[in-house]
Amino acid sequence: MSRDASAADVLRAAVATSVARLVRHGPVARAGNDPEGVHQARVATRRLRSDLRTFAPLLEEAWRASLVAELAWLAEVLGAARDADVLLERLRRRVREAETPPSAADRILGRLEERGRDAHRRLRTAMDSGRYRTLLDRLAEAAARPACTEAASGPAARLLPPLVRRRWRALRRAVAAAGPAPDPDALHRIRIRAKRARYAAEAVAPVVGPRADRFARAAAGVQEVLGEHHDAIVAGAWLRSVAAEQDGVDVAFALGVLAGLEDAAAARALEAWPAAWAALDRSPRGWMR
User: Fold this and answer.
1) Fold of 1-155
2) pTM of the model
3) Which residues of the chain have a pLDDT value below 50?
4) How do the domains of the chain map onto residue ranges?
């Protein structure tokens, strides 16, 4: 894309890229045969929501808010299916790592498999609905003609970087509020804000250039470390909740071992977090002015 592109041009390209990803992976997500389909459809939905929020000052508000609300509905059902897939695959690895006895592993994983089937049934119902088809129609229109304000006709290189800076400042505030010993909820909030800052930087990279790409990669590093921490915390909590319901000693013991492995994974991610944040904090940000 030309560095002389308008803000509207950049917004159109960002929306079109995410809509194309959703259209491409939506049928795979609906079929439920490949977890990657759900993952990619969810990423597309998240990016759309993030971009529509980041660049809100350059979009017609009623149009933007309505589309964000519908994307939130889709994100909820995609998220439930994706979270179930992630937890199941994670614990499949853990039972292999821990050499969990097959009888206990089958009981533990069986509960997750049923949870996943329920989540995917709800996802199929949503994607078979008229509401979803209407949303796809609206997204196709948004990809071709996003409802930009007149101000968006101005140069992207001038208008968009300050909006990315807002995302960066929100992230820094979250880190400052978390303090030197952040709890899991604070780290999860930081992760969400790092992801939004990354998406914003990636959206403007075609007109800003390598500096935005470097910032986005560093933000992705924070997101990855804190994503591992969050997944370990969620898995450990699930394992303990199931253990509290168990009467059988063998399954309860296996759950305890698996929970211990997740505690160790969370601790490793927590140790890696300061370095990941430092790398992002050192990233050049003069281009955001």
Assistant:
1) CHAD domain (1.40.20)
2) 0.94
3) none
4) 1-155, 160-289
